[in-house]
Amino acid sequence: MFYRFNRALDFDYDVEAFEAFLSRAKSTADLEEQIDLYQKAVNLVRGPFLEDIDADWVLLEREHISQTYLSALIILAELFQKQGQPEMALAVCQRALDYDKTYELAYSLSMQIHHSIGDRASIIRTYQAVEEVMQRQLGLHPSKETEELYRRLTA
Asked: Does residue 64 sit in the same domain as residue 109?
């Protein structure tokens, strides 16, 4: 027995909408439109995909969607930074860290944003936070790239 979804029905599927917004964002060169579309995409995510289901097919899809979401957040933060909105960029980085405390790229981008506004103390605090989280949750040190970025930004 097979089940199939009837696409002729009127329905909304947030994953399709998420991917459609991302696709449209990648295909436009207009910075404002990119920000708007990335913002719409990430605003659809309320947490991990089908968080309460542990089937193998869900785990793979959940990981894929999570990585796509985190990448979209980083791109959105970079766009805000490019547009001269460091506070918005930092808020988006924090959103990525709220989703995944070990997402090292968000810490690195946060340090770069703090550097761009001359906030050395926040660079140090951010690096200390990534050090602590990586050690506590994964038993690891930050990557060499993150360590080198920290040294370069605080030199």
From this structure: no
Domain total in the chain: 2
Report the predicted TM-score, pTM, of the whole model to 2 decimal places. 0.88
Single out the residue of 35, 134, 42 nearest to residue 85, CA to CA.
35
Digit-coded pLDDT (tens) for 68-106: 999 999 999 999 999 999 999 999 999 999 999 999 999
Residues 75 and 115 occupy one common structural domain: no
Euclidean distance between CA atoms 76 and 66, whole angstroms: 15
Does 74 fall in a domain? yes
Percentages helix, strand, coil for the chain, rounded to the nearest 5?
70, 0, 30
Measure the CA–CA gap between 64 and 95, rounded to whole angstroms: 18
Range of the domain at 149: 101-155
Do 21 and 67 contact (CB within 8 A), yes or no?
no
Tokens found for residue 119 = 């906030």
List of residues 6+ apart from 15 with CB closer than 8 A: 49, 65
Where does a domain end: 32, 57, 84?
A: 84
